[in-house]
Specification:
This protein is an alpha+beta fold and 231 residues long. Helix content is 13%, strand content 32%. It has a 6-stranded mixed sheet with strand order 4-3-15-8-9-12, with helices on one face. Strand 1 and strand 2 form a beta hairpin. The chain is globular and about 40 Å long. The structure holds manganese (II) ion. The site of manganese (II) ion (MN) has 7 residues, from loops.
Amino acid sequence: MSYLFPPPPTVSVPIVGRGERFPVHRIYCVGRNYEEHAKEMGFTGREPPFFFLKPADAIVVADAGQTATIPYPSLTKNLHHEIELVVTIGTGGRNIAAADAFNHVYGYAVGLDMTRRDLQGEMKKQGRPWCIGKAYDHSAPIGPITPAAQAGDVVNAAIWLQVNGADRQRSNVNKLIWNIAETIEHLSAAWELQPGDLIYTGTPEGVNAVVSGDTLTGGVDGLVPITVKVA
Ligand code: MN
């Protein structure tokens, strides 16, 4: 078989303690999955989980101990950070029950759901898709994946983000509205999950703007922290 032009390279993420990399299939994201963040976005109460996607090639790997660089994206004047726990799928499936969900998880990573908030807000107002606000190039920085067995108590881990050394977001994964298992149950009812899928599980309160020159450092206790500089 031959192709008209070279197919794009496989997007992949390093794995802690292994030579093999984790090939990325899809990036699913959960919206408004911490109560205090839902409130700061103008919503209250527990609504059914909802999802959006980013393209796999929006990934920017922030390797351990290094500073990854993302460009300040086009069109926006309000680039927001959202620190998130990323769940990585090792075994696919559809209609996965919450009780079985962790059997499908390969491991965990720290990710940033970077958001062109002004564009997202405009699309929301008009009832249009969020793609231009969420699914743009370089919008999904991620750190190395820690296999589940080595990741510690991720469901009760602190999640935090600093910008230029000052606290911006600080919460705990146990404050997820829809926890990891419930998220997998809902997601796999809508799509057949595949090995290589990433799930950005949502961000806690404290989202705010960053500008060119800012350095973001974020983590989930028990996982490899990430450092990302906005060019
Ligand atoms: Mn998010």
